[in-house]
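Severity: low
Component: inverse-folding endpoint
Summary: output formatting inconsistent between runs
Steps to reproduce: submit the following structure tokens with default settings.
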């Protein structure tokens, strides 16, 4: 069985290409997936995994996924090889996406959209008023 389930953040916006033979859309992007354990005294490590999504799923990913966004991908591992311009045989391993999901919380996504629209200084500014526990609130 060849099944992969990943959750990570996009390292760049998806890149769209079309095949030469039948003009099929293919989107490619990379996910930074944190490793489960952290060695004492070290920063958390991440693996950078190449993802490809074909046709309708590729179109979805290219339209809605953006750099920094957390997503979930279900797919399969695929290896392929080709010859480069110098005649050297090259290999790559990638995940072919079969399902793709948003994994950011709604709150995180709204904050990111707000920050992208208005700038980080507005999103991080302190409120103009404070509510104390003695205030009478209508809710």
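Observed output (run 2 of 3):
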């Amino acid at each position: 069985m060849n099944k992969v389930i990943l959750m990570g953040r996009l390292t760049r916006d998806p890149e769209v290409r079309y095949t030469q033979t039948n003009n099929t859309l293919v989107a490619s992007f990379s996910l930074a997936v944190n490793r489960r354990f952290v060695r004492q005294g070290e920063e958390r490590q991440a693996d950078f995994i190449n993802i490809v999504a074909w046709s309708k799923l590729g179109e979805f990913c290219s339209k809605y996924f953006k750099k920094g966004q957390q997503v979930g991908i279900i797919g399969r591992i695929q290896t392929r090889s080709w010859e480069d311009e110098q005649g050297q045989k090259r290999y790559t391993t990638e995940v072919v996406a079969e399902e793709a999901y948003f994994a950011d919380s709604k709150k995180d996504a709204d904050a990111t959209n707000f920050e992208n629209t208005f700038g980080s200084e507005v999103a991080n500014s302190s409120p103009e008023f404070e509510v104390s526990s003695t205030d009478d609130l209508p809710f």
